[in-house]
Amino acid sequence: QVQVVESGGGLVQTGGSLRLSCAASGRSFSASTMGWFRQAPGKEREFVGCITWYANNTYYSDSVKGRFTISRDNAKNTVYLQMNSLKPEDTAVYYCAAGPQFRNGVIRATQEYAYWGQGTQVTVSS
Known about the structure:
4-stranded antiparallel beta sheet; 126 residues; 7-stranded mixed beta sheet
């Protein structure tokens, strides 16, 4: 059974920073693309970014590029989302997901990710 668990959400002021963590277990973590998504109230879940298994290539949505950074520690089976210069529009539930193995390139579609965490709330106050 694959488990994905996010942590690190909270309340932060505009311009502040947060780091989310995502611990995965039950499969070959290092071989998987790991993605971050978010969902604001009344909106669809949207792609934030992902990190590939090979060369740790990272991809981001235009809305977070330059402010968010994804990294991974395969020894700890953990992926991170460092969020800087946060804006009120970043307020959402953030989800981590485990995607396909041994795939290169960006993977944006939610249906490509088979395993999801429970989500962690990030609230940015103005």
